[in-house]
Amino acid sequence: MPHNSQSARLTSAPPPPLKVAGALAVVYVVWGSTYLAIRVMVEDVPPLLGAGTRFLLAGALLYAWVAARRPGPRVTRRELAGCAFVGTLLMFGGNGLVTVAERDVPSGLAALLIASVPLWVIALRWLWGERPRRATALGVAFGFLGVAVLLAPGQRPDGVSLAACLLVVLAALCWASGSFAGSRLALPGDPLRSTALQMLFGGAVMTAIAVPAGEPWALDLGGISADSWLAYAFLVFIGSIVAFTAYAWLLRNVPISTVATYAYVNPVIAVVLGAVVLSEPVGAATLAGMAIIVASVAFTMRLEGTERQTEPPAPEPHRVPATWATETSAGRTASG
């Protein structure tokens, strides 16, 4: 998660272009492919249990690696509470609901609906009392038109219910709410440490409610296909640990406007991979919705970035700027 005064933390000497390109490629391709991996995983793995244990394992490994490599100040109770709240919204509300929905929703369609997260964040900021520019408001409205195109009767792929799609929309709203809350709550200063704690809290919530939600308490591990195991491992090690590490490095070495480009690259990659690997249908409505949402997100993020370049940094070192809201996983983030 980026923190205020990101430009002040950029290294004095620009990083090697090849290294920047490699890190961007990791974030583009890996987070764009997590939707595909989730779709494959839930063929044999219960979604909440799969997503919950994924984040528990990834969070524990990431936290241990960060603690061993660069021990930082002790995390306060206030910061822990912030991580618990934000992590539950991002990992459970965002990624968990997407994982549940992808039992029925094609991965490409899920990615396009999640791509509306930056638009939801701007809507939340408006409800909070901030007034966006008229051009920004029009861009947001245009983006939600793209969501409506994807949800319209007769435009969804055969067998995909409106309820399942609305669950993905709810996941996008949860991810946006978590991102919005994260910009206003105390969180650890180290972005990787903060992310690891959020993974642990969100993963614990999902794992705890999996059985009450109707998932089996004991898995037939032998009944899980090799593809689902590989997808699960990819989500833990590549989708969570590797991608978040590359993402954190980018935030500290290149302008946020460059990093944020993944928000409208990821859904395109997800649609292409879903079509090529899983033969998911890509009809005219999907292409139209994709074009509208991606164009809207790119437009509004450019406006927001231009506007915030003129704002002085906030004094609180623990706060996360609203640009984080345009970024996510968990993430991204809701699948990252």
In short:
The protein is mainly alpha-helical and 336 residues long.
Which descriptors apply to this entry?
336 residues, mainly alpha, 13 helices, disordered N terminus
Approximate strand percentage: under 5%
Dominant shape: globular
State the total count of DSSP E strands.
0
Distance between the termini: 13 Å
**Percentage of residues assigned to helices:** 55-70%
* Rg value: 19 Å
Per DSSP, the total helix count is 13
Give start-end ranges of low-pLDDT stretches.
1-8, 309-334
Structural class given helices, strands, pairing?
Answer: mainly alpha
Order of helices and strands: HHHHHHHHHHHHH
Mean pLDDT rating: 87
Largest sheet: none
Structural overview:
The protein has 13 helices and no strands. α2 crosses α5 (107-114), α2 packs across α12 and α12 (262-278) packs antiparallel against α13 (284-308). The relative contact order is 0.24. The chain has helices spanning 6-9, 17-41, 47-69, 77-101, 107-114, 117-127, 134-151, 162-182, 191-210, 226-253, 256-259, 262-278, 284-308. The protein is 68% helix and 0% strand. The longest helix is centred in the C-terminal third of the chain and has 28 residues, at 226-253. The protein has 336 residues and is an all-alpha fold.
